[in-house]
Amino acid sequence: MSPLPAPPQMHVIFVDHIGDQGGGQLALGRFLARRSSLKKELVLFQGGELQAIAASRGIPTTILGTSLEGWRVFGRARKLTKILRRSNADAIVVNSLRAAIVISLTPKGRSKYIYYLREDLSRARLKGLKRMLVLFWVLPRFEAYLANSQWTASTIPRRLLGSRPVEVAYPQSGLSLAPEIHLLREATTMRIVSISRLVPWKGLHLLLEACQILEERGHRDEFEVALVGGSDDAEYVTKLKEHATRVRVKVEFVGHVKDVTQQLERSDVSVVLSTAPEPFGQVVLQGMAAGTVVVACGHGGPSEVIVDGQTGILIRPNSSIALADTIEMLLRDPEMRKRLASNARNQARSYSDELLGDVLESAIRRLTNAGTS
């Protein structure tokens, strides 16, 4: 039996407003680094690590300039128009909202415009004039959409955009097909880690409130907390640190780390406490693969990945009492922790970079070819 023919090469330009590695840029970098039949090209408004990844793979990269402020956005749009016309690409995949706004100012050519939504379009996330701009100008300029979760896809306003195709492609989170085995730590205290930016909507204050509740219940010396992540909200960080001084549970402010693997491997429980629905949450999968028990609020992307009570625990959002109850349950039942962690590691194999990369490439091909004969 003869082998199936390879799919025809498709030229795709990926556009992002920045090359420094936030969650969306990390996921795009992993996709750029993988082998595929796509002819890839990268356009950034500002350089960074994405540029280095592309260079290591021989992917042509253009840097448009560092500023998207004020009237300069139109200059970036003019430069981008020249690049897109010259490339004659099959598809333009836009990886961030700021890049999507600039793309919306370019005249449409033959390329299929695809917007990969890394953030949802809910009213909690997008408000006021910016919401009007995005819904009535930016989104209609795209012919198809990718979404990083079912939740994010559900916030795309179908009544405005009609039958334009939408596909869900979970982001690559740095997981292997064979995640390493992580045994339950032999320690007298349970280590709880939060890996997120230290900003109010990430809900770190709920964890400190839960610490106070558990201290009052007599669990002060049974666990410790590590807050891993940077912040551009100095006022919120100050409040968190002041709150931490009022509890006798050990609370460590680790700061930003480039590779979270070591922090997860040192921990027993990881928490994702976003007060608004998390569009996806790569740290959920990373925590599962590392063998921690992931405790997350039961909304948004995490609720699509975690099977409650089997591969992690979903709790009521915005409730420090629900969080305290869950931590107390895990403190009292190490066997439950071991079972949840083992199940989570097995489930994480279904979200490996190898598999999710294939899903994303197939989705790009389908969306590019949609509506063509």
Structural overview:
There is one protein chain. The chain has 373 residues and is of the alpha/beta class. The chain folds into two domains: 180 residues, Glycogen Phosphorylase B (Rossmann fold, 3-Layer(aba) Sandwich), CATH 3.40.50; 162 residues, Glycogen Phosphorylase B (Rossmann fold), CATH 3.40.50. It contains 15 helices and 13 strands. Strands 3-2-1-4-5-6-7 form a seven-stranded parallel β-sheet. Strands 10-9-8-11-12-13 form a six-stranded parallel β-sheet, with helices on both faces. Helix 1 links the parallel strand 1 and strand 2. Helix 1 runs parallel beside helix 2. The longest helix is centred in the C-terminal third of the chain and has 17 residues. The two termini are 29 Å apart.
What summary fits the major beta sheet? 7 strands, parallel
Stated plainly, the CATH topology of the largest domain is called Rossmann fold
Fraction of residues in β-strands: 15-25%
Low-pLDDT segments? none
Shape: elongated
Indicate the CATH class of the largest domain. Alpha Beta
The H-and-E topology, N to C, reads as EHEHEHEHEHEHHEEHEHEHEHEHEHHH
What is the total tally of β strands?
13
Q: Domain count, please report it.
A: 2
Distance between the termini: 29 Å
CATH homologous superfamily descriptor of the largest domain: Glycogen Phosphorylase B
As a whole number of angstroms, the C-alpha radius of gyration is 22 Å
Count of helical regions: 15
User: How does CATH name the architecture of the largest domain?
Assistant: 3-Layer(aba) Sandwich
Range of helix content: 40-55%
Which structural class best describes the helix and strand composition?
Answer: alpha/beta
Strand order of the largest sheet: 3-2-1-4-5-6-7
Task: Output mean pLDDT.
Answer: 90
